[in-house]
Amino acid sequence: MTANATRVLVLNSGSSSLKYQLLDMAKASGGGSAADARLAVGLVERIGETTSRLAHTPLTAGGATRERTDPIADHQAALKAVADELAADGLGLDSPQLAAIGHRVVHGGLKFTAPTVIDDAVLKEIERLVPVAPLHNPANILGIRTARALRPDLPQVAVFDTAFHTTMPEYAARYAIDVATADAHRIRRYGFHGTSHAYVSRRTAELLGKAPEDVNVIVLHLGNGASASAVRGGRCVETSMGLTPLEGLVMGTRSGDIDAAVTFHLKRVAGMSADEIDELLNKRSGLLGLCGDNDMREIRRRIDEGDERAALAFDIYVHRLKKYIGAYLAVLGTVDAVVFTAGVGENAAPVRAAAVAGLEGLGLAVDAARNAVRSDAPRLISPEDAPVAVAVVPTDEELEIARQTYALVTA
């Protein structure tokens, strides 16, 4: 790697999509922002269909978004198309300034506790984890194989969603089921959204003017997928998602916590298959199942118009959220901040206000005027004299992946 190789390409590969960002880590050093570092962003979607779409935005000179809608047959063709778009902006993947490619990998099990340079053995282990991440790891593997074929000379790094949560103590990670069965099938709580929780907990410490090891934080990552974590001194000690991303908070289309016997009941009484139950709980539940919408903006609009189903869905969502805040206050003992992030957490002021309403006795409150402010900057929304800070910290998983990748390949 040359001395001026400071760029990292971040790939987030889905089953029929490829999200990407190119960042210059020299511009993100010393706490620099993603806006400083980001050179280009883009998305390829509907890969393998006749209506494929690539949207590419160069940011080096404020360039306009370019789109193409010709068919893109597979991930290899998608990455080649991305390379062509980057090359058109003088940012080609053959540039000596490209230091590495960082890949988001959803499930790393217990083996991968940190970003890892990908070789054949690492790829094989990621494949072994497919049974516990059947929707995500196969797509991540596709992206890795494609990128390795295109640039076999370049370091490829896997950054795992689960890695940040591997610091959970055994008593928090274990389910109370037969140990031999659990171990034989790797059944335990792994947690997800780890890159977001790592980034946001660290940025929250910076916002408070403290070192991460001196701060206890509850992170609430609220998007279409949602998760909570309890972070003590920079290390995760509890998180809401489990073996899969289904457990925990009410989400856009996922049920979150549910009595496991519901699945037996649906099989015996409703005659549903395992696949049908899986689809119900992951794709037709949560806010969508409760009121027919999984967009919080639409739900709030319906509430304003007097829609009772939307109001009930919102109340169930907030009730679950409040339960986790209380539980994690108990787990941590002392808390410096409760922080909201991701699409809903960053933009839905009514969710933030409702989540801490009635928790003043635990030191939690929001200032209405501060909470109403919309901003892309990390900010406090609690009153000046609040015992526990309440904050909004925009997440940046791509920047976190790039930073972890760059740190590894330059170490």
Summarize the main sheet. 8 strands, mixed
Number of H- or I-type helical stretches: 16
The total strand number stands at: 14
Element string (H = helix, E = strand): EEHEEEHEEHHEHHHEEEHHHHHEHHHEEH
Q: Let me know the average pLDDT.
A: 93
Helix percent reads: 25-40%
By secondary-structure content and strand pairing, the structural class works out as alpha/beta
Q: Please mark out the parts with pLDDT under 50 across 5 or more consecutive residues, or reply none.
A: none
Characterization of the model:
This protein is an alpha/beta fold. Helix content is 38%, strand content 19%. The chain is built from 16 helices and 14 strands. Strands 5-4-3-2-1-6-8-7 form an eight-stranded mixed sheet, sandwiched between helices. A six-stranded mixed sheet has the order 11-10-9-12-14-13, sandwiched between helices. It is globular and about 55 Å long. The model has no long low-confidence stretch (mean pLDDT 93).
Describe the protein's topology:
Blueprint: E1 7-13, E2 17-24, H1 34-37, E3 38-45, E4 53-58, E5 66-68, H2 75-88, E6 98-105, E7 116-117, H3 120-128, H4 137-150, E8 156-160, H5 170-173, H6 179-184, H7 194-207, E9 216-222, E10 226-232, E11 235-239, H8 261-269, H9 274-283, H10 286-291, H11 296-304, H12 308-332, E12 337-341, H13 342-347, H14 349-356, H15 368-372, E13 379-380, E14 389-392, H16 397-410
Parallel strand pairs: 1-6, 6-8, 9-12, 12-14
Antiparallel strand pairs: 1-2, 2-3, 3-4, 4-5, 7-8, 9-10, 10-11, 13-14
